[in-house]
Amino acid sequence: MDLGLNNKTALVCASSRGLGFACATALAREGCNVTINGREKSALDEAAAQIEALTGRRPTIACADLNSEPGRAALIDACPAPDILINNNAGPEPGRIADWSRDDWLAAIEANMLAPIFLIKQYVPGMRNRRFGRIVNITSAMVKSPSATMGLSAAVRAAVTALSKSVQRDAVVDNVTINNLLPERFDTDRQKYMAERMSKKEGISVAEAKQRIAATIAAKRLGEPMEFGDACAFLCSAQAGFISGQNLQLDGGSYAGLV
């Protein structure tokens, strides 16, 4: 299927690795001119080379910290008029409400709420003027089914979900859609970190911890990052213009609810 994305401009935040890298790769493969973002130039250079090897298209690099106003300004300078925005950022540490200080809350709000909201605010007007825009927020399965230890992440990401639902009611008139992808348990560095954390806490091997994590998924495996990237590319496609304000869970069939 031709997704109608050839020569569209795409900005993918936090994309030197993991799910952001997978989304950038999928969009480059579909013919997009992709800008990738991260805080470490060496990691971005390596990611750009990998994406070029996989797709034949070398992305532009925007080395900038999403979690600061100067960083977001630098990102906007590097990619002033994208047709596609993929909002992504590392999530806060797991814990319980007693563990999270005011500083923890402020850091999570800046990284996982204000960063995507201000980029949406910046880019939606231009997308509407051009009558094409696709915004995909990478949030978390915890938005719909928060676990006891992921309340901080769920709370701030749910705020982005609500804001996006509101904004898309106006923007979709001009063929600008805003959707959310809700991952759970993909085989990325984040899951490696979670397995290492469980290994130390439970006194088990990292391999066993990874198996336990995979066992919590109905499909009994971790998701492949490119499965996620391909889903993202479809939501950005010309064919997806009638899909907006939605939360698509990529969780191996694990969500227990109906809606």
Please explain how this structure is put together:
With 259 residues, the protein is an alpha/beta fold. The protein folds into two domains: 9-186 and 224-250, NAD(P)-binding Rossmann-like Domain (Rossmann fold, 3-Layer(aba) Sandwich); 187-222, no CATH class. It has helices at residues 18-29, 41-55, 69-78, 102-130, 151-171, 189-202, 206-215, 225-235; strands at residues 9-12, 33-38, 60-63, 84-87, 133-138, 176-183, 247-250. α5 (151-171) links the parallel β5 and β6 (176-183).
What's the arrangement of secondary structure elements?
Layout: E1 9-12, H1 18-29, E2 33-38, H2 41-55, E3 60-63, H3 69-78, E4 84-87, H4 102-130, E5 133-138, H5 151-171, E6 176-183, H6 189-202, H7 206-215, H8 225-235, E7 247-250
Parallel strand pairs: 1-2, 1-4, 2-3, 4-5, 5-6, 6-7
Helix pairs in contact: 1-2, 1-8, 4-5, 6-7
